[in-house]
Amino acid sequence: KRQELYDLVASMVADGVPIDGVGFEMHETQAGPEPGVITEMTKSYQKLGLEVAITELDVHTYDVDQQTQIYGDVMAEALAAGIRDISFWGFTDKHAY
């Protein structure tokens, strides 16, 4: 899925379609994202000249310590990769996925 979307966006950029950036939706479970994936994806889109944002971020787990760790890991990797815009999904865990 990731590669297909990247290929589509790269093709559109190559064709001159005016695209300024992309947004990642990250609805994470207790496993969290694989380390390095955020950086890899971000850098690939930045090479196309695009801004990258996390447009939806939530972590669904009932373990608050685990949730805190995953949010921290995601934020640290995202900021280190050059992402400057991060929006959280939902205002309460009660309505999370």
From TrEMBL:
One Gene Ontology MF term: hydrolase activity, hydrolyzing O-glycosyl compounds
Q: Where is the active site?
A: E56 (nucleophile)
Check the record and name the Pfam families matching this protein: Glyco_hydro_10
GO BP annotation list: polysaccharide catabolic process
UniProt keyword annotations, A-Z? Carbohydrate metabolism, Glycosidase, Hydrolase, Polysaccharide degradation
The keyword Hydrolase belongs to this UniProt entry's keyword annotation: yes
The UniProt record lists the keyword Hydrolase: yes
Q: Which residues form the GH10 domain?
A: 1-97
Domain of life of the native organism: Bacteria
What is the protein name stated in its UniProt record? Tomatinase
The root-end lineage is: Bacteria, Bacillati, Actinomycetota, Actinomycetes, Kitasatosporales
